[in-house]
Amino acid sequence: MAAKKVLVTGATGRTGSLVLCKLRQQVNEFEAVGFARSKSKAQELFGTNEGFFFGDIQDPLSLEAAITGCQALVILTSAKPKMKAPPKLGERPEFEFELGGMPEEVDYYGQKNQIDAAVEAGVEHIVLVGSMGGVSENHPLNRLGNGNILIWKRKSEQYLIDSGIDYTIIRAGGLLDQPGGVRELIVGKDDTFLTNSANGIPASIPRADVAELVIQALREPKARNKAFDVISKPDDDPSAIVTTDFAALFAQTTPGL
Ligand code: NAP
Questions:
Q1: How far is the CA of 32 from the centre of ligand 1 (A)?
Q2: What does the pLDDT profile of the chain (257 residues) look like in tens digits?
Q3: Which of 23, 75, 238, 244 could form a disulfide with 30 if both were Cys (CB 3.0 to 4.6 A apart)?
Q4: Model confidence, pTM
Q5: What is the spatial distance between Cα 49 and Cα 65, in angstroms, rounded to a whole number?
Q6: CA distances from 47 to 5, 17, 157, 162, 188 (A)
Q7: Whether the CB of 105 sits within 6 Å of ligand 1
Q8: Ligand 1 atom, smallest distance to 15 CA
Q9: What is the 239 CA–ligand 1 centroid distance (Å)?
Q10: Pure H helices in 53-167
């Protein structure tokens, strides 16, 4: 069977780069292409610019060139709040977004551009990595830099569902830079892990486990047309059973926002 051609956006990001690496380890199954805005960052991370398209998700033409001929798209772009300055003693830090990098621009219009380009190119499946916390407009992350980041992310998730392309929406808990493949993953919905139903399990997950979920979602039919929250049990939890059966995990997830 021919390899599935997959475009990964945000490919120089912390999770996107892991996804691209993992896909490139499965050359018989996937032909992975990265989309990024910085040639030097791609060079630094991957040692080459080969297999990359460079552009901006706010420029539909640059997306069009990258996505042509792809069967799947992995969206891993995101607006990123930056601390304005170190806070004074006893004060809370203040955050801002770079010019042109507000969540409305990146997480809504930037994602909408990617979804529109995918529809135009006849892409069959989009895996979108987003964030838990979008159910309540009062989530504190929305106040960072007056960005309403989770509101815009949620709006683009709905846009994806309405696009008619098969979707997998992975709403991660707090991302950890820790090893993957050593934890039990738990799926849910509607931000219930942020309230009381996680039995004290921290609402977090390693980026490496999110990257593996993306790969498995590209393979596994049970991940199609599903949206879910995901966290992990701590790696020293004696009750944890390391997740290896991803079909069974996706079977617990449901369609719709
Ligand atoms: P990240 O490292 O911040 O990467 C974001 C990527 O988006 C970067 O590669 C960035 O490019 C790219 N990007 C931003 N604006 C762009 C534009 N206009 N055109 C092209 N590319 C653009 O991401 P992450 O921390 O791995 O997070 C992955 C996802 O998980 C995000 O959606 C995030 O919101 C979500 N999430 C995060 C947390 C957390 O704890 N941080 C928790 C739950 C969910 P550059 O590389 O050039 O900067």
A1: 18
A2: 899 999 999 999 999 999 999 999 999 999 999 999 999 999 999 999 999 999 999 999 999 999 999 999 999 999 999 999 888 888 888 999 999 999 999 999 999 999 999 999 999 999 999 999 999 999 999 999 999 999 999 999 999 999 999 999 999 999 999 999 999 999 999 999 998 667 789 999 999 999 999 999 999 999 999 999 999 999 999 999 999 999 999 999 999 99
A3: 23
A4: 0.97
A5: 16
A6: 21, 12, 33, 38, 38
A7: no
A8: 26
A9: 32
A10: 60-67, 103, 111-121, 149-163
> What length does the chain have?
257
- CB of residue 80 inside a 6 A radius of ligand 1: yes
**Ligand 1 contacts CB of residue 207 (under 6 A):** yes
Query: 32: closest CA among 55, 51, 15, 50?
Result: 51
- Residue 167: helix, strand or coil by DSSP? strand
What's at 130, amino acid-wise? G
Active site (catalytic) residues:
131
Say yes or no: CB of residue 232 within 6 Å of ligand 1: no
For the chain, domains (ranges, CATH) are: 4-251 (3.40.50.720)
Separation of CA 74 and ligand 1 centre (Å): 12
H/E segment holding residue 40: helix 39-46
Amino acid at 58: Q
Report whether 50 contacts 31 (CB < 8 A): no
**Tell me, what's the pLDDT at 197?**
62
